[in-house]
Each structure stands twice: as structure tokens, then as C-alpha cells.
Amino acid sequence: MQRVAVIGAGPGGIVAARYLKSEGLEPVVFEQGARLGGQWSGEPGHSGVWPSMRTNTSRIMTSFSDLPHNGSTPTYPTNTAMGEYLEHYARQFDLLPSIRLRTPVREVSQDSDGKWVVRTDAGEETFEQVIVATGRYNKPAYPKVAGLDSFSGSGGISHAFSYKRPEAFRGSRVLVAGCSISALEIASDLAMLGASRVVVTNRKQRYVLPKLISGVPTDHVAFTRFAALAEESFPMAAVGEGLKGFILASAGNPEQFGAPRPPENIFEANISQSQFFLPLVAEGRIATKPWIESVDRQTVHFTDGTSEDFDAIVFGTGYDLNLPFLSADILRALNADEHHLDLYQFTFPARLPGLAFLGMLSVVGPYFPVLELQARWIAYTFSGAQPAPSAQELQAGVEAYRARRGGPQELPCHAAALLFARAAGVEPNLEQWPELGRGLMFGPLTPTSFRMNGRDSLPDAPARFAEEIKAFGCMSSDQLTPMQAGQLQALAGARDVESFARFVASVPVSR
């Protein structure tokens, strides 16, 4: 049996092993920690979750298509529930015998025959193929700040990755740097759990979406197939205005709450998410400042000329790519640095056949549907069920990525999901499902929705998807609203694809 090395037993590595196995391949999963689950293992040193942390994506969008969460799971599961979910998934597909815990990979290299050599403390093994699924968020990135090394606050300097005990900051003056989800969630946590003062500093205020909009999880209405197709079909200026209009209508402008005003261009500003940050700013429980100019012991000077003393600084300023186990030759071939890997569609290198990367892209929105689709594409390609990209396609894709180096590296989850679904040949045939047309276009891109057509389709997937789009009161009718009908007609005109126009005409509209 053809063996495939999978490096990392987080969500990406586990779902990759599941599909490799179903394709008749033998996965061997190497995990450095004592538990599977990656970030959701909660294991010190390998996990960036903190005790009170919940998911920022809903339970339907934080699951795989083969295993829904049970009915008692809250809308936003706890981190421990997610760890248990992943262990359950591994047991359900009999993956535990394939996972080698406490087995860090020391080096991956290629031998003279083109085979892949994986070296651990136990020795070397040779594989036909390798999937790197070690995750994108495990090496904290710190910005360069003049005088930062001089900071003498009693709480010290830390990163969101190591934030574990909010009670350690009780009564303290804390500066939280960054506008990412983790930065805003940690600032909210500290403000509600007893820090005496919480200040958030960032270079640029983002627009902030709450977790829930009128009781519906934001990921059910913000990351849709319509949004993905609109980005492909309409001018980006029009797409940006539409996105900003949605955010302002559902969440307001941060300036209304007392936070800085974001840039007018939504793509320049970017988007973050937090249920409590903006209300806490409005209540005066979180203050905001522009970026840090310099640090002098306990005193932090800001770019607006003000200064303030702090007991602790927590950086929520992102992560660098961390692939120390790849040989120098491989890293050179990938043109790798802290932020970039030269890959075709974020997955395959141009001249290293048999090597693939899973989950190494920055995704805005739910990760689980994207991970599963990318895992399916890789598994289908490695097994031969799906044609591998040609050498010309690989090179053209890598060159297209190189042209975007230095620009924004985040990809909306709806765009990523459609990218990998098309590559795997599992994008739903829209014409086949007019009765689900509203949900397929304006509902959540649930993992189940990608099991309706193509390889590994499930007979009950359409019925399950019909239930998922009704969850949380997201969509009570299968009929388009007049506004949605108009949006689809405009999209059909922009795409000018006959089959899509037929689909649009077949979806029922409320009168």
C-alpha cells in the first residue's frame, strides 16, 4: 500500500488522514505533542487557546461533513469540546493507529530517487508523498518597537499564543497590541475579568463584525457562495462597497462606539470579529490608542504624542510561517520566508512532486470547510482519482502567486472553499438543486453542501444541508427575497454563463 506521511495531527492532518485512507492510501501521521488536535489540544507549548476561549465560528461551520456536533453543543463550542470532537472524529474513522504522538519530525528531505525521507528521533522512513499540515499559527510574530526590550512592567511582555491565565492580570494596566480576532477577544476578556485598565493599540482600525447578527451566526450570512461569485464577477470597488454596506448595516462603524475610524476602503482596513469589543469601548471599559512610537521602561509612547504607563503588554500581532523541519533545498525551492510559500493554489509546489501543504494559508472566516476541501483535493490527486495539475499549470500558478507577494495574504473562506471544491470536482451542481438554490447562494457554505455532487457524495447530504440552512433562524423559506432575486439576476448578467442563468431562473422567488 502506498504510504503518505502527514506532518501534524491538528484538524488539517486528521481530515487529510481520513481521506487518504478512504482513497486506499496509508497515512502515517507524525505529531510532536502528546495529544492530537493541534491548537484544540490545549497542550502547553503546542496550543494557543486559553481556558475561557470559545470558537469564533459556529458549530456547523466548525465541523467536518461526516460528523456534526451533537445537539447539546452550544452555538459556539468551547475549546475543550473541540478537542473532544477531533478525538471522536479520529476514532470514528479508525485513525488512531495511524497517528504517532510525541514524534516530532526533525527533517523532511528528498533522496536521489525523488522519494521523501522523513527523519525523527526514531530514525528515517521513506514515503511516496508528504503532506505538511503543521498549521499557520504557532510561531508568534512580534513587531519591531524602539525600546521594547526596556519594558519593566511587572506583567512583562507576552503574545496571544501564550495567553492562558487572565486572572494574572487582575488589577493591572494592560496594553493589547493588534486588531486581530485574538487581540480583540483577549482585550475583552481582560476588561471583563478585572484588569484595572485595558488599552488597545493598532496601526489601523479594522471593521469589526460580532459573532451573532440578530441571533444568527455571522458566518452563516457573511461568507456565502454569492459573495465568492460576486468577487469573481464584479469590479472590486463594487464588491468592496457591497461588503462595507453589509458590515455597516449589521455592526456599525467602529467610530460610532468610540474606536478609531477605519479606512474607507474595506480591503485596506480589513475585517476582524469580536462580540464584545466595540460595546466595551462604548462603555469606556476598553480605551484605544494609535500605534506605539517607543517604550521607555513602563512608559509607552504613542504616535499621537501621548504616553501612558502599563504593567503588561500583550501582542496579538499574528504569526510567522514556521517550517524548521524542511531541508534547506526544499525551503529554497519554495522561496519561503516568514509570510510566503510559492505554491500552486496554496497547495502544491511547482517542482517538488509528491509534496503538498494543507492549511498553510491565512483564512478569514471558518477554517474547517476549507481544510476538508483542500484535504479532499490532495487525497484525490495523490490517489490518481483526480488529475494532478500539469507542470505548466503548476508553474503558472506559482508565478501568479509570486506577483501577489508583499500584498494581503488573507483569503476569505468563501473564496478558498470554492477554489478547493472546484479543484476537487465537488462543487455542487447548482442546476440540480433549484429548491436549495437560495441556501446554496445566500446560506452558509457548510461542509455538507460539498457532499452533494462529485466524489464522496452522500445520499442524505441535500436533506442535511436543508436543515443546516434553517439552523439558528438563518433561512426560514426556500424562496428568494426580491432583493436577492435582483442580486442573482445582476450576477447572472455579469457572469454570462448559460447554465448559471438557467439556475437563477429556476430558484423560486417570494411575491
TrEMBL record:
GO MF term set: flavin adenine dinucleotide binding; N,N-dimethylaniline monooxygenase activity; NADP binding
Keywords: FAD, Flavoprotein, NADP, Oxidoreductase
Parts forming coiled coils: none
Gene3D superfamilies: FAD/NAD(P)-binding domain (3.50.50.60)
Source organism, top-level taxon: Bacteria
One Pfam family this sequence matches: FMO-like
PANTHER family documented for this protein: DIMETHYLANILINE MONOOXYGENASE
Family designation: Belongs to the FMO family.
Name of the protein in question: Predicted flavoprotein CzcO associated with the cation diffusion facilitator CzcD
Lineage, highest ranks first: Bacteria, Pseudomonadati, Acidobacteriota, Terriglobia, Terriglobales
